[in-house]
Amino acid sequence: MKFAGxxxxxxxxxxxxxxxxxxxAIQTRIQPKFKEIGQELTDSLSSKLGIEMHLHIAKHxxxxxxxxxxxxxxxxxxxxxxxxxxxxxxxxxDDHVFIWLAYIYELPNKSSIANVFLENMERFSxxxxxxxxxxxxxxxxxxxxxxxxxxxxxxxxxxxxxxAEFLVGRHFDANDPILQDGAKFAELVDNIYETxxxxxxxxx
Length: 204
Description:
Shape: globular
CATH topology: BirA Bifunctional Protein, domain 2
Number of domains: 1
Number of strands: 7
Order of helices and strands: HHEEEEHHEEHEH
Strand order of the largest sheet: 1-2-3-4-7-5-6
Radius of gyration: 16 Å
Distance between the termini: 33 Å
């Protein structure tokens, strides 16, 4: 199956009440699409990096009551998991798609990665376009334009605060027509990841 893009029905998944009901919709509507676009992006990243990358699709297995507010796939260099490693993410909230190079709080070597980024901070402004955004918490929708954020402060917080995170990438509104063109959107995500690859390499 070729990836056909994301549509209104996919975003409406997050309005379904009940954990089981919403999980069933995630599994039938969204996860097959993650497998399709995910395999394509994983193969591309493996080729560009010269190492085997692995696709992980969020299972939300720890949830027992509250239905997930978002869902995602991750691509990492580790076959067994992604949370303790730098990874590429693609996922949906009810109102947007997020595409990240993600460093979340489970990372054991956060401080050393933050220091490397602080030493190469000028590269963020010269190599990353102004329409990219930064998030400090993967659980929240909120993000900040990279051109406007105090990057030094954000990276220092990522280094010094145990639960702090650092994610850089792009958001696309649920109504953006490009989301419904599977081939164009997959190419766009691949290009976003390519822009972020030098920073991924710095961190590994």
